[in-house]
Amino acid sequence: MALVFRTVAQFAGISLSLLGWVLSCLTNYLPHWRNLNLELNEMENWTMGLWQTCVMQEEVGTQCKGFDSFLALPAELRISRILMFLSNGLGFLGLLLSGFGLDCLKIGERQQDLKKRLLILGGVLFWTSGITALVPVSWVAYTTVQAFWDETVPEIVPRWEFGEALFVGWFAGFFLLLGGCLLHCAACSSRAPLASGHYAVAERRDHCQKLEMRSTNLKI
Q1: CA distances in angstroms from 140 to 71, 98, 116, 134, 144, listed in the order given
Q2: CB–CB of 172/116 below 8 Å?
Q3: Contact criterion met (CB below 8 Å) for 144 and 165
Q4: With contact defined as beta carbons under 8 Å apart, do 98 and 183 qualify?
Q5: pLDDT at 41
Q6: 210 vs 201: CA distance, rounded Å
Q7: How does pLDDT run along the chain (220 residues), one tens digit per residue?
Q8: Does residue 180 contact residue 205 with C-beta atoms inside 8 Å?
Q9: What residues form DSSP beta bridges with 55?
Q10: For position 68, what pLDDT does the model report?
Q11: Burial (CB count within 10 angstroms: exposed 0-12, middle 13-18, buried 19+), residue 174
Q12: Mind giving me the DSSP string for the chain?
């Protein structure tokens, strides 16, 4: 039963972590962190991401333009770029390390302690990656809500609202955190027993050692 739980936890943890990492990469590059709908022109919609601003028109299509200066961006967008890059890098490193710690990978099968450490380290990296993905998304959402309910801005002025990328980022952070927890549970569970072939080899070695000891005693 413990072996089944360990295998399922490893598979679910690495799958959720992989899904969360892919979603975090999409969140980083999607230009839909904020949406703006113009009441005067309903056929024109604006979107803003970390790297560019896009305008969608039914007649012209979608046109995007990158930001000219990094320093001219608001503080939440500048720091969000750095944190999202950090989240993508940590998630990728966590996938590599935890992948080598899986029981289904035969490399280093006899070094169970090392594989356990790799799983634990991979889980920690996934936790860190999830947090660094949730922080910028939540920060941009907070500033968007503040600007939306700012009473000093006239009501006629259009307001930015939540974009689809924010929800993708929240899911990404949640999956990364959950995947890291499952990998930690798998690492702390009982070790998987050696395969039947390894038992046969071990028994043969013990038998040979006993025969050698008997022959030595007879000679003496």
Answers
A1: 17, 31, 37, 10, 6
A2: no
A3: no
A4: yes
A5: 62
A6: 14
A7: 667 778 888 999 999 999 999 999 999 999 999 998 876 666 788 999 999 999 988 777 888 999 988 988 999 999 999 999 999 999 999 999 998 888 877 665 667 788 889 999 999 999 999 999 999 999 999 999 998 888 888 777 788 899 999 999 999 999 999 999 999 888 887 554 444 444 444 445 554 555 556 555 545 5
A8: no
A9: 46, 63
A10: 87
A11: middle
A12: -HHHHHHHHHHHHHHHHHHHHHHHHHHHH-S-SEEEE-SS-TTEEEEE-SSEEEEEETTTEEEEEE-S-STTS-HHHHHHHHHHHHHHHHHHHHHHHHHHT-TT--TTTT-HHHHHHHHHHHHHHHHHHHHHHHHHHHHHHHHHHHHHT-TTS-TTS---EE-HHHHHHHHHHHHHHHHHHHHHHHHHSPPPPPPHHHHHHHHHHHHHHHHHHHHHHHH-
- How far separated are the first and last CA of the chain, in Å rounded? 49
Task: Give the list of residues 6+ apart from residue 72 with CB closer than 8 angstroms, or none.
Answer: none
- The model carries a pTM of 0.80
120 with 103: CB under 8 angstroms?
A: no
Task: Give the pair of three-digit tokens for residue 178.
Answer: 């959950």
pLDDT of residue 210: 55
**Residues 28, 137 contacting (CB under 8 angstroms):** no
Q: Find out whether 30 and 165 touch, Cβ atoms under 8 Å.
A: yes
Q: Please state, in angstroms and rounded to a whole number, the distance separating the CA atoms of residues 116 and 188.
A: 8
Q: What is the pLDDT of residue 212?
A: 58
Please, are residues 164 and 140 in contact by the beta-carbon 8 Å criterion?
Answer: no
